[in-house]
Amino acid sequence: MSFYEFEKAVKCKSAIEDAGGVTKVSSPRASVIVPTYHDWARLKLCVNALKNQTFPQDDFEVIIVNNAPEDTPPVDFSLPHNFCIIKEGKPGSYAARNAALKLAKGEIIAFTDSDCIPDPYWLEAAINHFDKGVERIAGKIELFFKSDKLTLVEIYEKAFAFDQEKYAQTGGAATANMITLAKHFDTVGLFNDTLMSGGDNEWGWRAKDKGISIEYAPDVIVNHPARADMKAMLKKRKRVIGGEVCNKNNASKNTFFLILLKGYFPPRRQLNIFGRKGLSFSRKFLAYLLCYYFKIYSTTYKLALLIGIAKPERS
């Protein structure tokens, strides 16, 4: 064992003891990383789903990262033997994921979020892909809804949200369901923890530049709640745009004019929704109109960020 590996083992043991947990997983095949922020109720559902994985519990560990250290777990919050909770005070889910990466012992790193419910075969299916030589996986993100009667925002989510196959084609993947070999973080580096959003795809693009391939895996499934109201959706847009602006740094005057010229025109690429199956024409039309509204909103917010009258929100 190298000094670095020894240091990681000591830190993880200390973190587990601080959380009041005990782990029996000394050499896991996989490490699952779950950042959480004031989300204990939904985290319980995620923990239960991970506890019921078909992949043997003694072959994987779960590291939950509380990104709000002052918000302690509820009294009735308990964890299986292969789970632990650590704290990360630096704001942002990417800072939280980086903290867990420094402690993770698995040769495979699997990411999901506290509001997600992994399919029972999630890890088993993913491991099968890695046994066949895959380097990275963008797993399928399946939306679920509060009821069969969808809100306008839920219609939009069903039409446009979490297109992992599309992300994978550009080298990225949403960390709600992204799995990779641990060694790639030595090659690519950690997540950019200055970003409040978009750091998952940004890391993926760096990995692609290093020649690390990615595969879309429709059988590696995580269930994600669809946002149902406008307030939640606009908050998400602000996080995403904030991440994009931080990632691209300062914009030139020419960029300003391009934003103004392009940002207020109806979206063109999203017109392909009318050729997709699974939604009625009326729902497709409503989704497209809402997409146009979000584009206008995002453009306006982006301009506010660039001229300094708004600040990026945390993820």
Q: Could you please describe the fold and organization of this structure?
A:
It is a single chain. 43% of the residues lie in helices and 16% in strands. By secondary structure, it is α/β, with parallel strands linked by helices. The chain folds into 2 domains: 3-225, Spore Coat Polysaccharide Biosynthesis Protein SpsA, Chain A (Alpha-Beta Complex), CATH 3.90.550; 230-306. The protein has an 8-stranded mixed β-sheet. It is globular, with a radius of gyration of 20 Å.
What is the helical fraction, as a range of percent? Answer: 40-55%
Output the number of helix runs.
Answer: 11
| Highest-level CATH class of the largest domain | Alpha Beta
Mean pLDDT level: 84
SSE order, one letter for each helix or strand: HEHEEHEEHEHHEHHEHHH
Low-confidence stretches: 1-23
> So, CATH architecture of the largest domain?
Alpha-Beta Complex
Strand proportion, as a percent range, falls in: 15-25%
For the record, the count of structural domains works out to: 2
CATH superfamily of the largest domain: Spore Coat Polysaccharide Biosynthesis Protein SpsA, Chain A
Radius of gyration from CA coordinates? 20 Å
Class based on secondary structure composition and strand pairing: alpha/beta
Task: Please name the defining characteristics of this protein.
Spore Coat Polysaccharide Biosynthesis Protein SpsA, Chain A, 8 strands, alpha/beta, disordered N terminus, 11 helices, 315 residues, globular, 8-stranded mixed beta sheet, 2 domains
